[in-house]
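Case study.
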Amino acid sequence: MVDTRKVYVLGIGATPIGEHWDESLRTLMTKAATSAIEDASIERKDVDAIFVGNMSSGPLQGQEHLGSLLATWLGIPGVAACKVEAACASGGAAFHQGFLGVASGVYDCVLVVGVEKMTDAITRDITAALIMADDQDYVAFTGVSFVGLNALVYKAYMDKYAVEQEDIALFAVHDHKQAVNNELAQYRRPVTLSAVMSSPLIADPIHLLECAPIGDGSASVVLCSEEFLKKYGGRDVLIEVSASIVATDKLSLYDRDDITTLSASVKASRKAYKIAKIEPKDVDVLEVHDAFTILGVIHLEDLGFARKGEGWRLLKDGELEIDGKIPTNTMGGLKARGHPVGATGVYQVFDVVKQLRGEAGKNQVDSPEVGVTQSVGGVGGTVVVNVFRRVR
Amino acid sequence: MVDTRKVYVLGIGATPIGEHWDESLRTLMTKAATSAIEDASIERKDVDAIFVGNMSSGPLQGQEHLGSLLATWLGIPGVAACKVEAACASGGAAFHQGFLGVASGVYDCVLVVGVEKMTDAITRDITAALIMADDQDYVAFTGVSFVGLNALVYKAYMDKYAVEQEDIALFAVHDHKQAVNNELAQYRRPVTLSAVMSSPLIADPIHLLECAPIGDGSASVVLCSEEFLKKYGGRDVLIEVSASIVATDKLSLYDRDDITTLSASVKASRKAYKIAKIEPKDVDVLEVHDAFTILGVIHLEDLGFARKGEGWRLLKDGELEIDGKIPTNTMGGLKARGHPVGATGVYQVFDVVKQLRGEAGKNQVDSPEVGVTQSVGGVGGTVVVNVFRRVR
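After joint prediction, the assembly is written out as follows.
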């Protein structure tokens, strides 16, 4: 790797996350993209390329070729476009491709859009679509669900580190508390720990309220080069993408030495920190991919914010709060903001950029300079870590 | 766009195309990738990132997350990886992403793999998967098939330019003739024009033998930077990727002013020629995405090798032959080499590189220096044009 061309976030946009019975895949992504383009104060024709992050439009909507579809609906056919998929990290992976596009010098201004439309499919089909993130021939064929796989991780973790479930389930309480002030969040109401612990078991030991919900939504980011920025002025506050790193791991749990850590998360974050010249202590705002409470805790450890087996302490000590040591999932995370799979990685960028710009409203962290997002595909088969820095 | 870092083709590999009842999606792509890595004389661990081009693994195999899956099966979990989709141009789009990866300076050595496994699904599911290349809500819901859409183009073209079908159907005869000497081709036997014209009608006026077949296969390319090349020596013959351009068009035919031309093909090729500093007359070997005979003819025109309405003359005059003005689809094209959808764009690169290296055996073009591949998604919703040059 050599020094690359600098990449900046010029605009962001997103739809609310929820059950959008009156929206389709295309209207959701068109709205988010339009909103990001307006936020960037550019015109649609300024966009050179579109990268759509999406996991399941084929199985759920019978629709592929989302790149050309979105170019058409944005009224800018002609631009380069494609869909990028890395299971639940599809949004993060699309962001990375957009980063490569600008960093390469091939594109000056790219639009990254994450989208997923899940609620208008039947539950059986959604469950089948989600397990496609793992190995069909060696794992999914057994009938295990994606929740089931994470339940194995949860049990192994509690067993290895002798941690109480209540201390892990707190992650859901944390996320719901943050989401109350996020007008785009799917669930804007607090939940108590006892409500989480008494909600139905989905896959032992995972309770319903420990799972990210199924929802529809789309988020978008406009990335650009320094040259483009000079031409278009840009806003007072400027956010640079200091690093964007993708790492993989063996796809399935059965194949790994230790299922209580995601090695892709460790690899991607260490590499990203090195390139961005930061350490965990420099991070002012963090977004982790807490599809289940246990993953939130494991991510805190793998990303270097706590020792193994101790991520839950940050939660319990209030260090993930807005005024804590490492404000995390400040707009509600996957659990409460929501988790429209392929869109989530881009929502994370949206939320961190809001914070770095000082536009996070009641949940604003005090003058953050460095933000990190972590997007996870499958049970850690792919992890994308991005580092953002406010440079003015 | 600024000048980018140079990108080279270091290795290529591919499986035979056919009905591989004894292979799966993963074994096909692992074989092709392994073969490209061996051809490049590098080790697996030298690969920084993997880009998998595939359209329908979700609907057909119930398998997404191909990036992590392939990294796992290659024994190099840790590398960056994702899947890239742009309908039938998925292979071309994945190649473009790999190009961006090296051009950006983020990666020094990337592996591009195209794969599709089609024959172990039932016909109804394959037909449903292919039409996902067009608009589900406005087009596919009518029940029209992908062949049906191309039949509309065929009729409009014959009507507009008063061309006889026999002159267009010749494309199938041409491809089959070339494939005889390609040991990886799905159909290594010649067909006569009368056999083509008397084969069953699939969608009037398209006959069975005017359609690219359904098949399984995987092709792979190793791309690298100049720095990487210096370190690894590389082979005597060296191929540079002079340009890699993606363009879109309005997704569906009903939305276009003229369905006898693919504007994305015109845009992508002109831009690619400009960047590569070539004109059509400089092209020594050409691969066009002839999913149907009519498309082969239209591509020749849109890419600048014939005037509109006259592409068929090149065929009839023998100018597409190995010793013609513009040797085209020299290893059998989509019709006879085969068309495992998401793999095709990479097979095209494989075939052109074989030619530029002088390794095309009985079908070798005399000392070619410049090769062009054109990969098409849907009925031209996406087009990828790549220019290759032998630089030593």
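Observations recorded in class. DSSP finds 14 helices and eleven strands in chain B. The two ends of chain B are 27 Å apart (CA to CA). We will return to this complex in the next lecture.
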